[in-house]
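Justification of computing resources. Each target in the renewal requires a structure prediction run like the one illustrated here; the chain below, 110 residues long, is used simply to show the kind of job we budget for.
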Amino acid sequence: MLLTVVKNSIRTIFMVRQPRELPPPGPKPAFGSTIVLGRLKIQLLMAIDYEQWDWLTDKGWRTMEVRNNRRRYYKVPRKAVSRLLHATPDERDDIHQQILDHRYDKSRLC
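Resulting structure tokens:
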């Protein structure tokens, strides 16, 4: 355990860690799927159409495919997700930017 902590600290100090590249967009996610962008996570509690999925992938959102993912994400509130997915194409960019700019507190980290 201590050895792992020391190894991780050394990797961080010497910048051995490389940021992951954005994976290619996959197929449209099903109802209940989770999508992520950076440290943000959205659970799709409503079906989305192909146009919405294309827009989300253009913004960098991808499906989370790793089952044993140890990363911690900030969960975007359901109201914000609902507003984003029900918005007209003109309003979408503004709502998306508000979601990205919002300062999430530690209670939303999961």
